[in-house]
Amino acid sequence: LSIPDHTTFSRRSSELNITKFKREPGEPIHILVDSTGLKISGSGEWQETKHGLQKRKNWRKLHLAIDEATGNILASELTTHKNDDPSQVPILLDQIDEEIELMIADGAYDTREVYDALSNHKSGPIQGIMPPRKDAVLSDNALASPTTRDQNIICIKEKGRLNWQKETGYNRRSLVEPAMFHYKIIIGGQLRSRNFENQKTEARIGV
Length: 207
Fold this sequence. Notes:
Blueprint (H helix, E strand, L loop, with lengths): L5 H7 L16 E12 L4 H7 L7 E9 L5 E8 L8 H6 L5 E5 L7 H8 L7 E3 L18 H12 L1 H8 L7 H11 L3 E2 L4 H11 L1
Parallel strand pairs: 1-4, 1-6, 4-5
Antiparallel strand pairs: 1-2, 2-3
Helix pairs in contact: 5-6
């Protein structure tokens, strides 16, 4: 059989359309969101040893949305290390066609941008469980109409952060770690493509 060579694969991969993961229809899902770093391959340690080169380490960030019930990756996005985590939440949510009931993420996602994306989602408002920052303050209408974030702030002040984690189920966020571990064990923690668009395709294939 005629097989395309590596150069052909590399040249075409940036335009390759990767089929999204399809989940069986069912109850509204709970997702866990986080990111992990992937190293960009370079000349390698041998070049550093032989020529005494001190290379600047380059990384990409792989943002993931995980189905809490199954551990499957439902959405992903590869960015440079300069992109912050909250900015990728709307992109991840748009990739998921199923109805989402709940999203759990760490304190880095406690931003207005994320809460706006959750409240305006296409399938309806999504409950967000993200620990507020230590200096977080209540919204102007917290007494009359408290938001989810307001409720979190009040609960933490009254009962403490540990009790808030137990009541809200925030500790389930740790289930995102196995998915990232599996990716790096099976696929690897390094991207081999040199072009950024090709790297994005490579990461989607890995997912």
